[in-house]
Description:
mainly alpha; 7 helices; globular
Amino acid sequence: MTSNSHPTTRALLADIASAPALRTAALLALCAAYIQGPLTKIADFDGALAEMDHFGLHPAAFFAVAVIVFELTASTMVVSGFLRWASALALAGFTVLATFIALRFWEMAPGMDRMMATNAFFEHLGLAGAFVFVAAYDLTRGAGK
């Protein structure tokens, strides 16, 4: 059976996958961590400061506010379509940088914590790759909603 065996099924799936509501839901899902994270930091700003201190980012207040503003702004841009390609690339770069700062599994002793950090590291690389795909799609096919 070839991919052309069921053109109506393929067309139906294409219509569903490209529906504006599903696209918006998918973009919200892609940005979920970048929406939830800053909202949590706002609700517990002392915790956000402790997180910045933990990762050696000083001054902690500057970095906490910068991360909050960046993640919320970039997520809004990805979901809304305004300069989606640019904000998707920015989130991809941010994700890779934050992953190398926060998930240094190679420095951890063998065991469950290292395994979980390793998995999270590569999951974050996949997330960054998804943002690159979003940017590539918008740059090559347009950001039409």
